[in-house]
Structure formats: structure tokens, C-alpha cells
Amino acid sequence: VQLQASGGGLVQPGGSLRLSCAASGFTGDYYAIGWFRQAPGKEREVVSCISSSGSITWYGDSVKGRFSSSRDDAKKMVSLQMNSLKPEDTAVYYCATDRRQIGLYGYKCAKSQDEYDVWGQGTLVTVSS
């Protein structure tokens, strides 16, 4: 199982970016994805999660109303649309999955990084004028 995150870059405050997390190495459409970020000098924090069924999503208070997650099962990809970006959103963003949830039509939306055992390589988002 592999994940590859992409879509990061430099954006001005108030701008938008769309991150993508491409999954591979397994069959089936059901897999859960968690999005995390780590800012310079800070610990990694959870941003969002989507359950393996896709029916449950969750967003952290700092991004609620600005970020939204969606999935394209045909491409085996989960996207994180980030709007109204702020300088404090600057971080390396990671997507992660829990191999135990793969293939299960589930409703678990895990917020702890300990629940995930496969991680993408991270993509840098810089919000600056």
C-alpha cells in the first residue's frame, strides 16, 4: 500500500490550493484517509479525515469551513480543497491510511496519527504574501 501526496505550493493569504492523495497497491474502493500537517517547530496535527465509506468526514476547528475533503474512487484519490488560506496554514501536509480499514465499508474517521500505519511523503504548503 502506498500513498502519494501532491498539490502543495506557494499561495497568497486568502488563496486556495487543492491537495491530492493518490492511493495504490491494493484493490477495492474502500479506504480511510487522514490529513495531517506539521508546521516548522511544531508537532504534527490532524487536519481532516474521511471514513472508508466516504460518508463520514471531520475537520479540525482551525480549518472547519475552509477545507473540504472529497474522493474519486475511479482514480483512487482523495483530495483536500483548501480555501481562504492563512499564513498559519503553512506546513508540510501528509495523507495517511489505516490498512485495517482497506476493503471495509466503514464509518471510522480516526483523528489520532497512531491509528494510521501508511503515510505519504508530504507536500509543502506555504501561505505568504
Helix content: under 10%
From the spread of the alpha carbons, the general shape counts as globular
Largest sheet: 7 strands, mixed
* Structural class assignment: mainly beta
Tell me which oligomeric state these chains represent: single chain
Rounded to the nearest angstrom, the radius of gyration is: 14 Å
Cα(first) to Cα(last) distance is 38 Å
Spans with pLDDT under 50 lasting ≥5 residues?
none
Write the H/E string, N to C.
EEEEEEEEEEE
Residue fraction in strands: 35-45%
Mean pLDDT: 95
* Total DSSP helices: 0
Query: How many beta-strand runs?
Result: 11
Topology:
Blueprint: E1 2-6, E2 9-11, E3 17-24, E4 33-38, E5 45-50, E6 57-59, E7 67-72, E8 77-82, E9 91-97, E10 118-119, E11 123-127
Parallel strand pairs: 2-11
Antiparallel strand pairs: 1-3, 3-8, 4-5, 4-9, 5-6, 7-8, 9-10, 9-11
Task: Explain how this protein is built.
It is a single chain. With 129 residues, the protein is mostly beta strands. Helix content is 0%, strand content 44%. It is built from no helices and 11 strands. It has strands at 2-6, 9-11, 17-24, 33-38, 45-50, 57-59, 67-72, 77-82, 91-97, 118-119, 123-127. Strands 2, 4, 5, 6, 9, 10 and 11 form a 7-stranded mixed beta sheet that branches. It has a 4-stranded antiparallel beta sheet with strand order 1-3-8-7, with no helix packed on it. A hairpin with a 4-residue loop joins strand 7 (67-72) and strand 8.
Describe this structure in a few short sentences.
The protein is mainly β.
